[in-house]
Amino acid sequence: MRQSVVVVAGERESVVRGVGWRWPGRARALSGALTGLAALLVLAALVMPDSADRLGPAAFVRIPAEAVVGAVVLPALPRRPRVAVAAGCGVLLAALTVLNALDMGFRQYLGRTFDVVLDWSLLGDAESYLEDSLGSGTARAAVAGALALVLLLFVLLALSVVRLTELLARHPGTARRSTLIAAVAWVACASLGLAPAAVPLASHRTVTALRGQVHRVSDTLRDEAEFRKVARADAFGNTPGERLVPDLRGKDVIFAFVESYGRSAIEDPVMAPGVDRMLDARTKALAKAGFHARSGWLTSATYGGSSWLGHSTTMSGLWISNQQRYRTVMASDRLSLTGAFRKTGAFETVGVMPGVQKGWPEQKWYGLDKVYDAFRLGYRGPKFSWSTMPDQYALQQYQERVHGRRPAAGKGRMSLLVLTSSHQPWAPVPSMVDWDRLGDGSAFKAMEAAGAKAADVIADTAKSRAEYGKSVQYSVTALTEWLQRYGTKDTVLVFLGDHQPIARVSGTHASRDVPVSLVAKDPKLLDRTADWHWTDGLRPAHDAPVWKMSAFRDRFLRAYGSTPGPGKN
Question: Transmembrane residues, as ranges (predicted)?
Answer without folding.
Answer: 27-47, 59-77, 84-102, 139-159, 180-199
